[in-house]
Write a structure and sequence with these properties.
Pfam families: DUF1801
Structural class: alpha+beta
Number of strands: 5
Strand order of the largest sheet: 1-2-3-4-5
Radius of gyration: 17 Å
CATH class: Alpha Beta
CATH architecture: Alpha-Beta Complex
Largest sheet: 5 strands, antiparallel
Shape: globular
CATH topology: Aspartate Aminotransferase, domain 1
Strand content: 15-25%
InterPro entries: YdhG-like (IPR014922)
Distance between the termini: 58 Å
Order of helices and strands: HHHEEEEEH
Length: 140
C-alpha cells in the first residue's frame, strides 16, 4: 500500500516572524502613531514610498476619522483603535507589487464574495479614486 509522504511544517517564515515582532513593539511603543507611520514610510523603496506617502496624505484629507498607525510594521489606519486598512510595500514580503488591504472590520461587504486586498502597481488618479471610495465605504 502506497503512503503519501508527510509534509513538514516549518512554522512561520522569517518575514512573518519579523512582522509579529514589529507588532509587539508597536503595542508597547509610546511614539506618536502618525510619526511612527511616517518614519516607516520614509524607509521604503522609492516607488512604494511615494505611494505610501500619497495614501497617507489622501486618507488624512478624505477620511479624517481614520487614525494613522503601524500595523504589523505596515502603515495602517484605525477607527476607534481597531485596524481598518493597511498598505503593504512590495519589499515587506518580497512581493512583486504593493498591496492595499482591509481588515474584517471594514464594511466593504458585497454579497457572498468580495476582495479584501488589492495589488497596487501604480497610484494613478483613477486608482486613488477607487481606493479612497473603498476606504470611505469601509468606515461607513
Amino acid at each position: 500500500m502506497a503512503t503519501t509522504p508527510k509534509k513538514s511544517y516549518d512554522g512561520f517564515s522569517e518575514a512573518e516572524r519579523d512582522a509579529m515582532k514589529e507588532h509587539a513593539k508597536e503595542l508597547k511603543s509610546k511614539e506618536d502613531p502618525n510619526e511612527a507611520q511616517l518614519a516607516k514610510i520614509a524607509g521604503m523603496a522609492d516607488g512604494d514610498r511615494e505611494m505610501a506617502e500619497r495614501l497617507h496624505a489622501l486618507i488624512a484629507k478624505e477620511v479624517p476619522e481614520l487614525t494613522p498607525k503601524l500595523w504589523y510594521g505596515m502603515p495602517g489606519w484605525t477607527l476607534g483603535g481597531k485596524n481598518v486598512c493597511f498598505f503593504q510595500d512590495a519589499a515587506k514580503f518580497k512581493a512583486r507589487y504593493a498591496t492595499f488591504g482591509f481588515s474584517d472590520l471594514a464594511k466593504i461587504d458585497d454579497g457572498d464574495l468580495w476582495p479584501t486586498s488589492y495589488a497596487v502597481m501604480e497610484l494613478t488618479p483613477a486608482v486613488e479614486k477607487q481606493l479612497i471610495a473603498l476606504v470611505k465605504k469601509a468606515v461607513s
